[in-house]
Amino acid sequence: MNRNHAVSILLPVTLACTSACAGQRVPPKELVDARADFMRARDGIASQLDPTDVHEADIALQRAEQAWLASPDDPSTVDIAIAADRKALIAQAEAHAIEAQQDAKAATAQLQAMRASQLQSARSQLDQSQQALGATQMQLQQQQETVQQLETKLKDARATIAKIASVKDDERGMVITLSGEVLFKTGKYDLKPGAMAKLDQIAEALKGKEQPIVVDGYTDNVGTRDNNMALSQMRAQAVRDYLVSKGLPQDLVTAKGIGPDEPVADNGSIEGRAQNRRVEIVVQPRRSDR
Description:
Blueprint (H helix, E strand, L loop, with lengths): L2 H19 L7 H15 L2 H4 L1 H20 L5 H86 L4 E5 L2 E7 H4 L9 H14 L6 E6 L6 H21 L7 E7 L10 H7 L1 E6 L7
Parallel strand pairs: 3-4
Antiparallel strand pairs: 1-2, 2-5, 3-5
Helix pairs in contact: 1-4, 2-4, 2-5, 4-5, 5-7, 7-8
């Protein structure tokens, strides 16, 4: 039989004996309070968390009961009852203090675990961010190296092309200008053999640059505008198709007929009209560099 069970049996027996032995006398309020406070301590968390103080309160209450049983009129019985009540209250207070400490420890442990989890998560995210940043920097470096390589190749190509054609830069990109007389017979759009030789060199110089190329065809103002527009388109297309046949990416090379609309010289002279009859191969900047 455990001690609490023994107390629960002893207390009613004691009370019954007290009532029988003391007749119908009502116990003092101090003893009644001591009994109630002890029962709260015994039936509450104090029995689990602070059994020593509960045991001491039990002994103190038994003394108070015996003192009142023996001398109900003795003033000291009230003092003994008050002391027993205090023992019971102390047991309850100590139990609540222990419970609070345990709750605080549990809360602290939970908070530390949460912080550790958050810290681990933050470190993991930081590691992922650093890895992503490293990969991005590597990609950027590779892109920069690719751009530098293309720029170097384009400079080399420019130097090669400049030996056989006029080369300049404007807002469109690198512009290679070939005279119409060099490329075609008058009024025709079939390439001359000598023109093919020049275009062979240009195509070879531009291979591997992976840059958009637009072939623009121009005419002078002799004849109707409709005929000149059609002729400029067919000439631009002929140059474009030849460059593609020599290895330039067909999806990057386009043709456009401009006709007489953008002269570079006065059409009032033979020399001016000859300058206006031309084909311009425009090597545009790479789309990602714009």
